Each structure stands twice: as C-alpha cells, then as structure tokens.
Amino acid sequence: MRNEDGSHPEGEVGGEDRSPCEGEVSVEERCRTEGAGPSVFSAGHPLIGAAGDSLAASEVGEPVPGGAAGDSLTVGAHENPSDKSREGPRTTASTSPLPRDALKNPQTTPDESPSKKSSESPRTTASASPLPRDALKIPQTIADERPCTSSGPESPRASSAAEIPHPMSAASPLTTPPFPVSIPRDPESFGDTDLVDLLKRLSADDDRLVDLREIPGRRARVGDWPSWVASDVVEAWRAQGAKEPWSHQVSALDAIHSGSDVVLASGTGSGKSVAAWTPILSDLCQVEDSARISAIRRRPTCLYLSPTKALAADQLAGLTHLLTACAQDSPLSTVRAMSADGDTPREAKEWARANADILLSNPDFLHYVMLASHQRWTRFLASLKYIVIDELHHWRGVLGAHVSLVIRRLLRIAHSLGANPIIIMLSATIRDPASVAEAMTGRGAEAIDEDGSPCGSHHLALWQGRLIPEESEVDISEFLRVINGEDVVLEAPMRRISAQSEAANLGAAFMEEGARLLLFCRSRAGAESLAAQVKDRLAAHGSALAGQVAAYRGGYLPEERRALERGLRSGKLRALATTSALELGLDVSALDATVTVGWPGTRASLRQQMGRAGRAGAPGVSVLIASENPLDAYLLHHPEEILAPVETVVIDPFNPYVLAPHLCAAAGELPLSESRTQGEDLALFGPGMTALAERLAAEGYLRRRPAGWYWDATRKERASDLTDLRGSSGEVQIVDARSGALIGTIDEASADAHVFPDAVYIHQGRTFHVLSLFSMMAPLSHEAGAGVGASVGAGAGVGAWAGVESEAEVGVGAGTSARAEPNAGAGVGTWVGAVDEVDIESRVRVGSRADIWRESGARAKAWGAPSLIPASSRGAQRQRIAVVEEVRTPLRTRAKQHVSVSVRQVERSWTSEDGLVTWRFGAVDVTSRVTDYDLLRLPGLEFIRNCELRLPTRVLETKAVWYELSAHALAVLGLGRDELPGTLHAAEHAAIGILPLFAACDRWDLGGLSTAEHEDTGLPSVFVHDAFRGGAGHAETGFERAGSWMRATLDTLLGCECEEGCPRCVQSPKCGNGNEPLSKAGAILLLNFLVDHCPPG
Question: Is residue 392 predicted with pLDDT exceeding 80?
C-alpha cells in the first residue's frame, strides 16, 4: 500500500472549519502559514468549485462494482492510479492562486482531438494567471477510455503496435468519432435487423464483434379458458388482448384450481401474470359484496412478493389497469389491490391492512412488519388463500435461504389462523423448478415448464472494446518531430477501450438508429457514469436525444424511481442506464435492445436482461460487452457456455447462521415446539431446530418452557431485528448539509468504503463531498474508540461487512506477505480486535455440518464457536447519517482495506497420494478494515495523495476452500521463494474469476487470499471464500469440482495471448494493491500441476 504524506488531522465530527479560502492565497502559502497540509476538499481549493456550478465532466473510469445486488462506488476505475506512466492525455491545472471556479477542465478524450488547430498539443495546460469566473468552459471529458495494463487476447500489449497518423490529421484516432454519426430515425420505421446491420457496420473494420448468435423464435400453442374461471375475469383478460390462454397458462390454472402449489417457469413476457391473478380474481367474483365485517372477513386474500419495488409497482399498474377497464357493475370493480412497502405512507398501509384483497409487497415488509405484528394483520392472514412469489430464480444463496424461512414463518402463522394458502411461484429462468420450489417452501410443487407463448427471434452479439493506439507511450521526441512537420511514422502499443465506454458508444448509436434500450451495469456508480457518457456522445452530435437518457439504480428516492419508470413506459425516456434493479419483470413492451456491460454473473441474470428486449413476441437484440475480467474473456470465446442451461439455484435454509435469528423471530411470533400441530415446526425448520433452540436459550435469546421455546420478552430488541434479510445491516441516509434534504441512501455494508469522511459521492450525475459520517445515537467525539475518520469523524457504525475493491498486504510470519482479494458482497460482520494466532491443529476440528451444529450450546462454546446472532444485531441499531455538500470538483476517491483470513474449523480435507498438495474446506474468519483512500483527479484518474482513515474492524465468519503446497511441491515445481508470492497471487485472481462458471454466484460473491506462508497452515496457501456470513455453498462447490475448476482456469490463462498478465487472465478488478506482484508464467506452471492434484469429483 502507498503511504503518501498528507493524511488529515483528527478532529470532531463535522468540527473542521470548511469556510472558503481566499482566492488570492495559494495552497503552498496555506501550508507555510498554517503548518499543515491543505485539505483538497476545502471549499476554496482551486480544484473545488461552488455547488451551484455542476461539473460538466462526466463520471470517468470503469466503476468498480461492489456488494450483493450492485452497490455504488465513488470511484471511476480500478487500475492503479499511481502508475502515471500509463495515463492518457489529460488536462493539468496549476496550483497558482486563482479566483474561485476560475479553472475548468478542457475536453481531453483519448480517442478525440482536444483541438483542430495544428499548433496545439493533445496535452492541454490551463493558464496559471488569474482569470474571470467561468473564463474556461468545460466540454465533456471521457477519460474512461484510459490506457490499460495490457490489451485483450487479440492484441497483446507487449508485441502489438500501430502506426499513428499525424495527430492533427483527419485519420488520427484522436479525431475519429467513436462511431459513425447517424441521423435519428423514426422509432416506428425499423426492426431488429436494422440494429444487427448497425453492429456489423460498426465492426466491419475491426474485431469488436466476436460472435453473433440468433436464438430462434417459438410458435404459440393456445388452449381454452378453464370452465371455473369467472366470466368477468375472462372478459377482462380478453379486453387486454388475451383472447385465448396459452397452453402453459391453462396447465398452471388447472393445477392451482386442484389445490396444488405450482411453479411456472416460462419465458420472459409469456404472461405469467395471468396465472398469478386469475385464481384470486375468480374467487373474489364469487364473494358477496357487503360492508358487513363478517363479509369482509370471508373475502379471500392474496399476497404477492417481488424482489424489487419497481417490479411490484409495475405489477400493480398492470393489475389496476385490468380492474379499471371492466364494467362498473362487474364484481371486479370492487376488488381492492394495494402495494405496501417501505415507501408506502402510514395511512395507506393502515388502509391496506383493513381493506386490501390483494397486497403487493416484498419479503422485507413481510418480515419486519407483517409477521412481527401479525396480530394486527389477522383479517388479511386468516383469509390468505394465495401467495405469489415472483422471480423465484432471484432468491438464491443466502438471500434465498432468508426468504425461504420468511415464507415458512408465514405458513406457520397462516396455519395457526386456519388458513392454508396455495403458493404460486413464477420464474422465467430456472433449472429444475420443482426442486427449487420445494427448497423455498418446504412443500412439494407441480412444475409447469413447457412454454406455449410465441417468441420472436433474438440476436445475441458478443462484443469487445475497440482497439486504439496507446498514445501515451509514444516517444515524446518522435511526437515533437511529427508536430514540426517531419515525415516520421509514430508507433504505439494497442489497447482496448473499456466495456463501459464501448457501451456508451453503442447506446448512442442505437438511439440515433431509433431504438429504445436498457444498458445494464454492475454498480450504482457505473449506471451514473454510463448515462452521462451516452448523453455526452449524443450532445456532441447536437442530438435532441441527449435529454432522453437517464440513470436508474438503488439509493434513489421513491419519487425519483417512480418518475423514471413512468418516463420509460411513456416513451419520454428512450434509454436507461441501470443496475439489476430493472432486470426483473418490468413490463415495457416497446424496448428494442439491451446492452450488458460485463458478464452479469449468471446465465439466468443475462437471460433476464435479454428478456427486457423484444417482449410480447417481438424480435429483439442484445449485446454482451466483455469487461476486463478473465471470466468475460473466457466466455467471449466460448459462447456455448453462455447459451448452456441456466445455473442451479442453491437454497440452504438450514444454514445455522441464517436459521438461528429466524428461530428467534418465529419464537416471538408463536412459541417453538417439537410437537405443535404434529411436528410442523420440525418440518418447517429442519431436524436441527431443537439443538439450535437450546443453544439460543443458552445464549439468552429464548426461554425454555414445558410448551416449547419462547422469545425472551425482557430483551430490548425485537426478535425480527436480529435478522438482516439482504445482509446490508440497514441503510445510511445521505443528507444535504445546506438544505437538510435527503439525497439518497446507501446500504450499511458499503458505507465505510463509499461515504467515509472526505469521500466524493455521485448521485444522478451530481457530485457531493462527504463532510461527515456519524451515528445519530453516538456523541460527537474525536476519540479513537468512536471510529473517527482521518479528517472528520466517521462516528460509530454498526458491525457490517464493508466490501470494497481493495486488496491488502497482510504481514504473516517472517519475511512473508499475504495478498487478499476481499469480497464485494454484503455480509453481516462483527467488530473485533486482533485475531489470535493459534496453531491450526489446536483451533480446528474436522466434522460435517450436521455434527457441528447438533451439539449443545455449552459444548459449542467449549470449542470456541461464535455466537449464531451477529453482534451488530445483538446491539442497538444505530442509524448512521452521511452529511454531504454539493461541489464542483474533478476529484474522485477510492477506498482500500486490510484483510486477513484465519482458519476456524476444517470440515473436509483431501491430500494427494504423493503428499504434495492438500485441499481443505471449512470455516474461516475474514477480518477486514477500511484503512485509507486514494485521492484521484480527472481526467485519467491521476493519483494525488493517499489519506489514512480510522474506521472499525469487521470480521466475517464464513466458509472457504483452500489448498496448501508442501515444501517438496515447491521443489518439484522449481519455484523459488522470490517467485512464490506472484505465482500464488496470480493463480488466486484467475481462480476467483472462473469459479462462477461452476457455482451459482458471481465474482463479487467471493473473496480470496494468497500467502507464501499462512499463519495457520504454515505453508504456501491460497484461499477462496464465500462473501456471506455462514457461507453460501460457493466455496464448497469449488472443493467438490476442484479439478474442473482448475482446468478451466488453466485454459483461460493459456488462451490469453498477453505475456505478463492482463485483466482478462490474472489481474483483478478488485485489487487495490495494483495487481502486484503477479506472475502469469508461474500461475500457469502451478495450475498445470494442480490439475493432477485435485480431489476427485
């Protein structure tokens, strides 16, 4: 890690003087007079402008993703900003005294000329003399197209070179537009073939279009409406255009009518809503309309659960349209449908509780509100006849386990009130739907997976970034000779522009062709940046379409999200750059195309994104742009892997770390019992319930009584508060210091890394400076124990796993170091002190999960097992606030963290016959702390300084797979001690990038560490761990399929033509150590050895 001078002094939270500096006092003068380093975020610093002058330069760099479900990051790129030799042309600003806001950055795009005057150089320097306010305007900056450490497989950086024309000539890549400028067409006058032709034209002279596949369409198979469906309902559907139901709809309706639980797995846009709403609407048509309380209580009810608020809002809009279009005397006109979630006003929730027939919500509301206070929802729950679970494939891994237990608790309460609801599960992309449904509910379900709906053909293009010369590495003397008019041919290595810049190019080209589209990114900051870049490209052509592009992501206020959704449906918005928030279910039938920036993690996710284009049987076009990820490079040249069947959904509701807090919640709702209702609790919560309940009683959460286990009502917290369904430990509110308005929110797990004091935060293209991060329930203090930041206090935060893209160097043993690639997912952690170093034989034990967790609480404590309840949940929840001010600045920040892994328990072990390699799987503790951040400047993300932070330490109790190399193995490999760290580090990066090919996860659900001598094993070791508390099954899959995993990893490295390693093979987008040291050759040698030394399976 860099430890540059310039860390901020400690101070009270919000206690720093942030008044503007005088324009005539230079930064150097402040340093001399005050005797301290200046804060680059001071309001009068030359790099900072007034909040009223929004920075015109677009967000740059390819944002580094973070967190489960796409968390925001306040930086632009993951490359090492300190390596200035790789920077592209950029603007440099003088630190001489200037009036406030005098400097504004000229446009410097690596692919476009800053000026057409032959006398100017591509590198522009702002004048240091005093200038009037706004003297220099800010054209848009596209610094994302930055130099990379190497090119893709088609263009090894070390050997490829290109002749560069005169930099001011028309043929220069500096002046060539990124795509042919086209005149906007009438959206009604083109089809998918126009977009396919456009893709072919754009890549006619290069290798960007790697593969183009046409997925054939499907003809419709229809049936008759079942006789039991109410005639009013049939007429309502016919009025919506559904004259005859498709075959899969008929099959699902008949199964539901027979009383069976159903899982309907059919294509996107195949009318699954018909199966969801028809049963409850038909039942309501048969009910007498009366104002009497007894009649209201007899009305059947339906609970709809969706993974996102956007999907629930879309379903409510469609249902409302169906109901309001019917005749006034129709029974459907009396149906009361309502949504209830965290955005719903209190009065509306109360009305829904008393009157709603159909309630659209999400598992979070069900867990925290409905089940926790189920007595107030008795009317609705006692009449509950149907439960609709939409997008079943979304509920996988730890999140799926949480939702499964919430559903089981709902069934438990409904049964106690005399209701026995039928469960209807819907999914467009799922393998073995019957097994997944049973894992979700604990009950068998009939699977309907033969799709009878029509489907238009769909084109899938596999795309990579355009090759351009690495002009920053041109010999300066040769460059000056060209400027002077000499006949010299310039040569430079080639590189590919980033996936995000390529997506912006394609998005603008598609829009000018007349298309409506969605652009999918992995991170919140990525969505903001991509929307800005598409606007920039359209505005550069003078296109009116620039005002019809926006970003959509989590963290927006409810009214902002609703406005964007309305704009997309109405056509006022023609393109949205979004995270996975719009991946699921949103019914916008007029979309023509989707662009996915980087592999989205799973085939199921890609299919969902592709399904947003060409709905209602129309053809569509989707483009997958490969990012600088080794898995992306592998898939780009193995399209059969992309088109293979979707991954198996893994749901393990009996993970003790997940189950334990739900048992507390269940006991708070109804006492737990082994015998109640013929052992229903054992059937719902598994045979390990008794042992876990006893352990929770020993820890003081439950009380044992003859009738069962009861929640200890003397505790301060609510039982439901012990569970965090999405692993984010709540949200941090982001508040404007000037107006007090709520700007947005960020999950608690990401707060330390993204809204730490002095961070730069991006929201809807606006730039904010974080003044402070503190707890509303903690005193403002500058003492170290309060978790105060380096410059202004960070306050006390809850114990959440804060995943960032950094990689830390951890000292282990004498003269050795560990390289850790931490997860970017959201898991719940615990604040800890130093991790004790204990010999591995004395601190681990071998056994199965069943053996481990069936032990009593007392015996569990005897071998040092951690509490099953997160420390952050055991303590009082402390709402944290990030206070920000809007600024105009070219600065960005990137957090880094220190990570270590310690072995807690070995559950499975295998040693090769020759004793050279040992593979293990077991429980580990991943200790992490955000330690410092880099201050970067646009364009090019130039490194300015490194600043220290003092934030809490977290520990993540999870599962890992790792291998250990004996001393003799190193001799067989011929690896010296100096080569070993780079070899292990490179092999770890590559393995993490490829494991998602075998496990139902993505790279951001995993973390890792490599070390030449681990403190527990005493041997060279490489760890890959799950990013969730208690584990999620991904690491175990790696152990079980180690041979295939290592072979695919080796193939990826061998297939990459770079010489020393690149982002497509061994470099990691999450590596804050600057991907050093790395040895691709050593990794190939090691992986080739491991292929023959892996567990069978």
Answer: yes
